[in-house]
Amino acid sequence: MEHFDRHDETAIRRLDDLGLEELRVQMVADSDGRLDVVIRELVLRAVRVIESVCRTRGTARGLARERVLRAIDDASVRLVLRLKCPDRQPAVTAVAAEIAAASVDAQTPGTHPPPRLAPPRPELRVAEQLDEALKRGRLRRNNWRNS
What are the φ and ψ backbone dihedral angles of 23, each rounded to 5 degrees? Predict the structure, then answer.
C-alpha cells in the first residue's frame, strides 16, 4: 500500500460509519491503495450483524450449522465486493443485513440422512455357540469360586 502509515489505520478506526463511508467513496474515486483498510474496517463492523441475521434466519428456516456458516461466508464476501463499487451505499449495517438475509434465503435446507437402525435380529453367534457347548457338557458354568 502506498503512503501507508500505522497512524492512518488508527485514525480510520476512530471514524464513525458515515465518516468511513465518505472516505471509502473518495478512495474508490481516487483509486487509493489504502481502500482495503477502510473496507476491512467496515466489514469488521458489519460482521456481527451478518452473523446475527444468518443465525436467526437460518435457525428459523431449519438450516444445518454448516449451511448457516456457508451463508455467513457468502454474505461477508458479497459485502466486500459491494463495498468496492464506487456507488454510495446506505449504512453498512443495513447493507450487511440485506446481504445476509439474501444469503440465507439462497441456502436450501439439507435433507437429514436416514436414521441408522440396528439390525432386526442381533447376530449372537458366540452366545449361541456357548449355549450349545454348555448343553453338550464341553463347558462348565462358572460359579466364581474356581476362577
Answer: -65, -40
DSSP three-state, residue 41: helix
- Assign 53 to helix, strand or coil: helix
Name the residue with cell 464506487.
86
Average pLDDT across the chain, whole number: 81
Which three-class secondary structure state does DSSP give residue 36?
Answer: helix
Written as nine digits, the cell of 85 is: 463499487
What whole-number distance in Å separates Cα of residue 31 and Cα of residue 29?
Answer: 6
Rounded CA separation 129/147 (Å) = 21
Cell of 143: 460359579
CA–chain centroid gap for 35, Å, is 26
Name the one residue in this structure whose C-alpha cell is 436467526.
56
CB atoms within 10 A of CB 92: 23
How is residue 114 annotated by DSSP?
P
pLDDT digits (tens, 9 = 90+) for 40-97: 888 888 999 999 999 999 999 888 888 999 999 999 999 999 988 888 888 888 999 9
